[in-house]
Amino acid sequence: MTAGGSVAQFGEETDRSGSFRRQGNRFTDRPSNAPGARWPVEAGRYRLIWSRACPWAHRSRIVWGLLGLETAISLGTVDPLRDERGWRFSLDENGRDPVLGIGYLSEAYLRTDPSYAGRVTVPTLVDVESGLVVTNDFPQLTLDLSTEWSAFHREGAPDLYPAPLREEIDAVNELVYRDVNNGVYRCGFASTQEAYEAAFVRLFDRLDWLGERLADRRYLVGEQLTEADVRLFTTLVRFDAAYHGHFKCNRQKLSEMPVLWAYARDLFQTPGFGDTVDFDHIKRHYYRTHDQINPNRIVPAGPDPSGWLEPHGRG
């Protein structure tokens, strides 16, 4: 319960003002090339667990694919619907991940920390041999895929985190995370009118800022695709399908914001982006797992996704 008496979707992550405060990442180790590293960078040693529904996990899947890390890090996919034990491997035969041999991602969390009581999140990188969680630190994970794993990148892979642009990428990412990536959740999970309206204003102010920034440039930073574009894309691609209605982010649809809509379509039509999007998983996850927001769990039939393939006019 919050100060206003409303029931929050995630009570442990909602303060007394009704504002959503996302939990921290419990596991923050990193595969490293440093001598004596606990988790050395090694092909075949780790498994990346993601969900097609989750924007935080989706960014890892996009980076993993763009860099061509398929032969270095295996990929496991959880069901878009969670039950009381969290993310489950019900898409796999017999409901168990074929590499890790577990039915729920929570099994790896509890093997690593038997006292863990927080939400189980994706993406998660798991050490295959021990079954221990290495990291669920989603912002650092993709940066490490670009830097620590460079020896395994495919020929011609994009440099998503170029050294000369890192300071600007980090600055843009911080603003986009605060007001957009996490901002849509702060709208949707707010349990007071005041908390919702504050998050709503910050979200659309930042989207307006992004539209102005992208009006005369193709990408967010520099003249190339970077990590910043990946992070913004995974929120934008879910905007009309989930956040506009389910999270009440309804000043405008993405498709009613001309610059951002064209930018998002440009990315969607770039190999490695649109082919990783699953609108069915996205809608079923959001509308069927947040029972405080959508107690009837009815999944909307729209919007029509065909617009994503319309010419974007950028480039």
TrEMBL record:
Which residues does the UniProt record annotate as the domain GST C-terminal?
A: 162-289
- Enumerate the CDD domains for this protein: GST_C_Omega_like
- Region of interest (Disordered), residue spans: 1-35, 296-315
Name of the protein in its database record: Glutathione S-transferase C-terminal domain-containing protein
Q: Which organism is it from?
A: Nocardioides jiangsuensis
Q: Lineage of the source organism?
A: Bacteria, Bacillati, Actinomycetota, Actinomycetes, Propionibacteriales
